[in-house]
Amino acid sequence: MADPRPIGVFDSGVGGLTVLREILRRSPAESTLYVGDNARAPYGVRPDEEVVAFSRQALDVLAASDVKAIVVACNTVSAVALGEHRRRYDVPILGVIRPGATAAALATRSRRVGVIATPATVRSHAYFAAIKDENPAIEVYEHATPALVPLVEAGELRGPLAEQTVADALAPLLGSRDANGEFIFPLPPSAKVDTLLLGCTHYPLLRSVIQSIAGQRVAIVDSATATASALAELLSINGLEAPRTTRAPADDAGQAEHSRAGETIGPVTHRQMTTGDVGAFRALAERLFGDAVADVESLDLAVAR
Amino acid sequence: MADPRPIGVFDSGVGGLTVLREILRRSPAESTLYVGDNARAPYGVRPDEEVVAFSRQALDVLAASDVKAIVVACNTVSAVALGEHRRRYDVPILGVIRPGATAAALATRSRRVGVIATPATVRSHAYFAAIKDENPAIEVYEHATPALVPLVEAGELRGPLAEQTVADALAPLLGSRDANGEFIFPLPPSAKVDTLLLGCTHYPLLRSVIQSIAGQRVAIVDSATATASALAELLSINGLEAPRTTRAPADDAGQAEHSRAGETIGPVTHRQMTTGDVGAFRALAERLFGDAVADVESLDLAVAR
Fold this sequence. Notes:
2 copies of one chain form a homodimer.
Chain A: E1 7-11, H1 17-26, E2 32-36, H2 48-64, E3 69-72, H3 75-80, H4 82-88, E4 93-94, H5 97-107, E5 112-117, H6 119-124, H7 126-134, E6 139-144, H8 148-153, H9 160-174, E7 176-177, E8 183-184, E9 195-198, H10 207-214, E10 219-222, H11 223-237, E11 244-246, E12 259-260, E13 263-265, E14 270-274, H12 278-289, E15 296-298
Parallel strand pairs in A: 1-2, 1-3, 2-14, 3-4, 5-6, 5-9, 9-10, 14-15
Antiparallel strand pairs in A: 7-8, 11-13, 12-13
Helix pairs in contact in A: 1-11, 5-7, 5-11, 9-10
C-alpha cells in the first residue's frame, strides 16, 4: 500500500512554504513538489475566474507530475476554487481553511475565536463559515491585517518594528493594554477571543511576536500545522504513505536517510518551482526558512501543459 | 461527485453511539449504518487476534452493505487492527485515536495533555504515541479510569454519585482540591494538564460532569467530535459527500427533509444492528440518546456475511 510519489503543494507565492515546512516536520518520509505562482501573486486582488484559471494551470503541472495528493496552501484558492478543482482532478486535494477552522474550533474554550487574514480572505468569510460548520455556537471575529504580509516579505520577523506593527494590527481584536498591561476593549467584552487563528500562510513566520502580543492565555492556531496533520491522516486512511521499512537491528551502515522510531525511510526529494524570479524566490525562501530550499526551478505556467 | 451511500460505524458495544451522534450533528445529510458487537463486548479484555477477527466480521458486514466509508468507533480496534483492516478493505477507514490525538495536540496551550481511557487502551499507549506523533514536545499523562464505563452503562450521567466517581477517577491526574478549591497535586506540578482527552467512547456522556470537576481552565477534548470532523473533511476531499440540492425559492412544499443554509438534502436513513439483545441495546441507547435509535436490528456475526 506504500506510495513513494510526492505530495504536490501549491501557493500563489512563498507563503505556502510555511505549510511545506509543517509537512516536512510532520511527515519526514514524504517527498514534495512545490509550485509557487509568484509571477502572478498575490491572488487575493484578482477576480474569482482568474483565481480558478491560474490555479488550474498550476494544478495541471502537479497532476502531470504524478503527485499522490495536492495541498492548496493558498487561502484565496482554498476559498474560491477548491470544489471545482476537486471535481476536475482524481487526486485528493486539501485546502488550508477547513483544517485551520477545525483546529480553532477545537482549541477555543470560551467559544470566541479571532481570525486574522488578508482583506480578500476576510471578505470571503470562508473561515467564518468553516468554523460555524464545526460549531455554530462559536462566535467568530474576522479581522483584516493587511500590514503583516509586507512585514514578513521584508524579513521583519522580530524586533521593535515587528512588535509595533503586530500590536497595531491586533488591537481592534485584542484591545489595547492599559497602564497595568490589561487589555482595554474597543469591542464588546464578548469579543475577548481566547483563540487566534492565523488565516494567512505568511503569518506563522510572525508567530512568536503574535504570541507575545496576544499573551499566553490566547491560543495561536495556524492552518499550516493543522493542514499538515490533516494530510498525514489522509495519507494514512487512503493508504498513500511513503514506504517505511523497519530497521534491522544489525543495520548500522549509517546511510544518509532519515530515521524515526527505529524505522528507515526511503530517499526523499523536495523540488520547488516558481513562475517568478528564481533568485528572488530562493533569496526570500532562504531568509525565511534557512537553507531548506536550495534548488529552485523556473516554471512558465502560461505555456506549461 | 455526490454519493448517497451510508457511512458505516462499528463499535464493540453502544459507546460508539457517541461517535454516531456527532456524525449526525456534523453531517446531517449523511445516512448511517451502525453495527455493535454487544454479544462479545468488551473487546478490551480479549487477545489481539480475537479483536482483529471479530472486528473483521463486523467490517465484512459493513463492506457488504456498500458503505462509502467506515468509522471504527472503538478504541481497542483502532489501536490494534486499523492497519490490517485498511489493507483488507477498499473503503476508507477512520479510527478514533488519531483524530482525538490531533485534537488534543491542537487544543493544549501548556503542552501538557491528560488522557483518560479504559485500562486496555492505556496499556496500548496508542494515544500517547499518536499525540507524540503530532508533537513530540507535548507531555502526555495517561490514566486508566475503569469506574466510568459502568457508571455510564448504569445511566448515572449526573448527580452526586457521578460527581464523586468522576472526582475520584480524575484525582490522580488533576490533583485534589484544598479548602480554597485549588488543586493539590500528588504528581509533579508539570502534570498539571490543561487539556483532557476523553479516550473512551462512553466518556462524552459524562462530559458535563467531567468539565465541572476539571474546571473551565481545562479543555475537554473528545475523540467523537474530532472523528466526526475528520470524517466530514474526508468525505469532502474524496468527493463522497451525500447529495445536496440548492432549494429553489418557490419550493416551499414542506417536505419532511432536513435543511440547512437554504439547501435541501435527500432522504436520510439510519440503521442500527447489534449482535446482542435488541431490547437491551434499544433500552440503553434510548436512555443515553433519547429516541434517536428507534429501529434496532439483530445481527449474527458468526454466520453473517
